[in-house]
DNA sequence: TGAATAGTGTCTGTGAGACAATATTAT
DNA sequence: ATAATATTGTCTCACAGACACTATTCA
C-alpha cells in the first residue's frame, strides 16, 4: 500500500517524474459569417460562412494552412485559457464564445513528437473584428458539399488561394451510429486539422437547432432575414420563411428600429431575447 | 524563419524538450442497467442504472471512490487505447461501446501535479459481465434527483455504502445556453469525478433520443417493456407505452421467441435492427 | 411602375400525448 | 378468478411543411 500517513506528507514526497509526459495544444476553429457584396442594388448581400486559418512558415507542414493554436503552458494555464490567449494573439478578439470540441490524439498526428490537441470552436460576429490580425492569418469562405450522406467535400477560399479537401464518415461500431472521420483527399491543410474543421462545422450544425449559439455570430440588431440566412448557411439548406419565423419567434424581440434603403420593403430590426 | 531545407531535416534536429510537458489520464464512466429482484412473483424486475467506481487505497484521495482510469502511455497509446486497457484490467470487458466525453483540465484537479484527463463513457449490457473484476471496484446503483432545473443531486449505492453529492449547472455565457457544472457538496468522490459522472449521465440522456446507443446496454433479445424501462431510467421519467412503441418501432424487429413465466401475458422478444 | 424583399394567413399531414380497450398468462 | 403486464386502437392537439397572398420600398 502506502507508507505515508497523510495526504500532505504524501504530496511532499511525490515524484512526478515516474510518469511519461507529453505536450498538449489548444487549436481553435474560429467561425464567422461574412457578407458578399451584390452588384444589383436591390439584392441583399449573400452571406458566407468563413473560418480563420494561419499559414505555417516553419516545419512541420511548412507552407500549409492550419487552425490557430498553440502549446499549452502546463504550469499555469487551462486549455481554455490557452485557446483564449491564442485567439487574442491572432485576432485581438476577447470575450467571444468558446466551446470545447474534441480531443485529438493520434500518436503520429504531429511528426515532431507526441502532441495531444484539444480543439475548441469559437463563434464571432464579423463586425466585431478589427484589422489587427496576425499577417499570416486569413479568413476563408467555406463551401460545404455533401456528395452523399457519408462523403463531405469542403472548399475554402480566401480570395487568393482555394483549398479543397474531402473526408468520409466511418461507422465505428456495429451496434450504434457512432462514427469518426477519415481524410480522403487533402493537400493543403496541416496536421489533422481537416478533421477538426469538419467535426466542428458538424457540431455547429447540430447545436444551432437546440441552442441559441447563433446569436454569438450576430450583431446586436439584425433582421429576421439576416438571421435566417445564417441558419441556412450553417444548416446548408433553404428554410421556409413562415416556419423559420415561428421557430425563432420567442428567441428574439422586435425593436422600433428599421433597416431601410434596400430598394424594397424595409425590415424590422430584432434583438436576441434571453428567456 | 527556419534554417532547414526539408521536413525530414527539420525533424531530425527537432528538440522536443523546448516545451513544457504534462501527464494525461483516461477516465471511464462505465454505465450499465441492472435488475432489482421483486418479491411478488407477478411483478417485473425494476431496473436501475449503475456505474462502476473504484476505491482508492493510496494518496491522493485515499479511501475515496473514483472512476476507473489510468495514466496515458504517451509513447505508444492513444487515449482510447488507454481507456480500453483500463477497462479490460478492471472488468475483463472488451469490445464495448466507448465514446469520448470531455477533457477536464483544471490546473489543480490533481494535487500531485498537472494532469489533464480525457473522460470516456462506456456502455455495457450487465449480462456480459463475468465476475472478474478488480477487488477494489464496485457497482453503484444511481439515483438521480433534480431539485430544480439547475441543481442535481446524485446518490450512489453499492449495497454497503451510500454516497451522495450535489452539483449545480452554471451558465457560462451571457449570449447562449452554454453551461458547466459546479460541485456544491461532495465528500466521497475523488478528483473532479463527480462532475464527470453528471456530465456523462447528461450526455447519455441526450444521446439516447437521437441515436441507437441504448442497444449497447441491452442483451441480444429483449422485450419492449424492458427496453422502455431502460429509456425511462436514463431519461428519468415515465413514458407512455403506445408512444414509446411507435418511436422505436423501426429500430427493432420482432422474433418468434417469447418471454413467459411472469404470471401475466407473455411478451414477444425483439432484437435490434440496423437500418 | 416593377423588381425585390418583408411579413402574414391558412391549409394539410404527421406525429406525440392521452386514455381506453383488449389479450394472455401463473397462481 | 385475479393480479399483473402486453399490446393495440383511436382521438385530439400542436406544429412543421407548403403555398399563396399582401405590404413596402427606391431607382
Structure commentary:
- The structure is a homodimer of 275-residue chains.
- With 275 residues, chain A is of the alpha+beta class.
- Chain A has two domains: 23-143 and 187-207, Nucleoside Triphosphate Pyrophosphohydrolase; 214-272, Arc Repressor Mutant, subunit A (Orthogonal Bundle).
- The first copy, chain A, is built from five helices and 13 strands.
- In chain A, strands 1, 2, 3, 4, 5, 6, 7, 8, 9 and 10 form a ten-stranded mixed sheet that branches.
- At the A-B interface, α1 and β5 of A face α1 and β5 of B.
- The structure holds a DNA duplex (27 and 27 nucleotides).
In brief:
Chain A contains five helices and 13 strands. By secondary structure, the first copy, chain A, is of the alpha+beta class. Chains A and B meet through helix 1 and strand 5 of A and helix 1 and strand 5 of B.
Question: Helices, strands, pairings?
Answer:
2 copies of one chain form a homodimer.
Chain A: H1 7-12, E1 23-36, E2 46-55, E3 65-66, E4 69-71, H2 79-91, E5 97-104, E6 115-123, E7 137-148, E8 151-157, E9 162-171, E10 179-186, H3 193-210, E11 222-223, H4 224-235, H5 241-248, E12 252-259, E13 267-272
Parallel strand pairs in A: 1-6
Antiparallel strand pairs in A: 1-2, 1-4, 2-3, 2-7, 5-6, 7-8, 8-9, 9-10, 11-13, 12-13
The structure holds a DNA duplex (27 and 27 nucleotides).
Amino acid at each position: 500500500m502506502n507508507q505515508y500517513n497523510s495526504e500532505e506528507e504524501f504530496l511532499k514526497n511525490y515524484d512526478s517524474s515516474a510518469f511519461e509526459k507529453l505536450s498538449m495544444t489548444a487549436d481553435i476553429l474560429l467561425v464567422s459569417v461574412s457578407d458578399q457584396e451584390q452588384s444589383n442594388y436591390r439584392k441583399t448581400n449573400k452571406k458566407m460562412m468563413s473560418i480563420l486559418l494561419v499559414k505555417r512558415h516553419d516545419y512541420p507542414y511548412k507552407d500549409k494552412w492550419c487552425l490557430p493554436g498553440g502549446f499549452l503552458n502546463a504550469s499555469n494555464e487551462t486549455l481554455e485559457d490557452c485557446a483564449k490567449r491564442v485567439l487574442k494573439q491572432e485576432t485581438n478578439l476577447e470575450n467571444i464564445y468558446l466551446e470545447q470540441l474534441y480531443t485529438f490524439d493520434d500518436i503520429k498526428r504531429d511528426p515532431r513528437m507526441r502532441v495531444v490537441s484539444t480543439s475548441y470552436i469559437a463563434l464571432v460576429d464579423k463586425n466585431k473584428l478589427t484589422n489587427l490580425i496576425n499577417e499570416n492569418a486569413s479568413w476563408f469562405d467555406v463551401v460545404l458539399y455533401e456528395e452523399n450522406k457519408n462523403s463531405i467535400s469542403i472548399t475554402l477560399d480566401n480570395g487568393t488561394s482555394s483549398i479543397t479537401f474531402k473526408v468520409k464518415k466511418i461507422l465505428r461500431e456495429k451496434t450504434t451510429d457512432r462514427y469518426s472521420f477519415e481524410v480522403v483527399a487533402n493537400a493543403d491543410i496541416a496536421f489533422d486539422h481537416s478533421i477538426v474543421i469538419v467535426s466542428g462545422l458538424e457540431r455547429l450544425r447540430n447545436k444551432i437547432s437546440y441552442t441559441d449559439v447563433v446569436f454569438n455570430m450576430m450583431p446586436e440588431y439584425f433582421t429576421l432575414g439576416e438571421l435566417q440566412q445564417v441558419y441556412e448557411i450553417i444548416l446548408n439548406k433553404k428554410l421556409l420563411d413562415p416556419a423559420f419565423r415561428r421557430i425563432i419567434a420567442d428567441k428574439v424581440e422586435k425593436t422600433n428600429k428599421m433597416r431601410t434603403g434596400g430598394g424594397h420593403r424595409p425590415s424590422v430590426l430584432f434583438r436576441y431575447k434571453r428567456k
